[in-house]
């Protein structure tokens, strides 16, 4: 069995949160590659290997998606809906990382298949620790679904 690379898709429009997440992954050395989408439309292009990300057509999906809810163009809930509705992507773990603590967002995300929902800490050190904890769990400790590495595209 071939190991799935520790590729992470980070979907984040806040430049400060984006940089902190990159720092956290770099420090922890969990992810071999962190790809970034700055809005929901770009995330969908990445996930479905279209547009600027069409070259990803033969590459396996990411091992983990960190997904904000409040995104430009297409919100994170719609990205989650499309990702979890696709047979080739539904096994990919999705951690919602958001500033929203609203019950309706939490319920909607879990209903659509989010694997985890975390409210972003405002303290920088806590934020770094949360990202490192996510990486430790999903990229080191968790055994991925063997079907998650299969590329199934129409």
Q: What does the model show?
A:
- With 154 residues, the protein is α/β, with parallel strands linked by helices.
- The chain has a single domain, classed as Rossmann fold (3-Layer(aba) Sandwich), CATH 3.40.50.
- Helix content is 38%, strand content 15%.
- The protein contains five helices and five strands.
- A five-stranded parallel β-sheet has the order 2-1-3-4-5, sandwiched between helices.
- α3 (76-84) links the parallel β3 and β4 (94-98).
- The two termini are 24 Å apart.
- InterPro entries: CheY-like_superfamily (IPR011006), Sig_transdc_resp-reg_receiver (IPR001789), TCS_response_regulator (IPR052893).
- This is Response regulator.
- One of its GO terms (biological process) is phosphorelay signal transduction system.
Defining key terms:
5 helices; 5 strands; about 150 residues; 5-stranded parallel β-sheet; Rossmann fold; alpha/beta; about 15% strand
Please outline the helices and strands.
Blueprint: E1 7-11, H1 15-28, E2 33-37, H2 40-47, E3 64-67, H3 76-84, E4 94-98, H4 103-111, E5 116-119, H5 124-141
Parallel strand pairs: 1-2, 1-3, 3-4, 4-5
Helix pairs in contact: 1-5, 2-3
């Amino acid at each position: 069995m071939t190991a799935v690379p520790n590729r992470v898709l980070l979907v984040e429009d806040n430049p400060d949160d984006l940089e902190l997440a990159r720092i956290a992954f770099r420090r922890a050395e969990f992810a071999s590659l962190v790809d970034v989408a700055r809005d929901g439309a770009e995330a969908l292009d990445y996930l479905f290997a279209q547009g600027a990300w069409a070259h990803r057509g033969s590459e396996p999906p990411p091992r983990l998606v960190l997904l904000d809810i409040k995104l430009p163009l297409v919100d994170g809930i719609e990205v989650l809906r499309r990702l979890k509705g696709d047979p080739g992507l539904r096994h990919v773990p999705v951690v919602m990382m958001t500033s929203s603590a609203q019950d309706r967002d939490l319920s909607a995300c879990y209903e659509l298949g989010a694997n985890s929902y975390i409210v972003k800490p405002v303290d920088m050190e806590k934020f770094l620790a949360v990202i490192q904890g996510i990486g430790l769990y999903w990229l080191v400790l968790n055994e991925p679904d063997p079907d998650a590495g299969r590329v199934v595209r129409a």
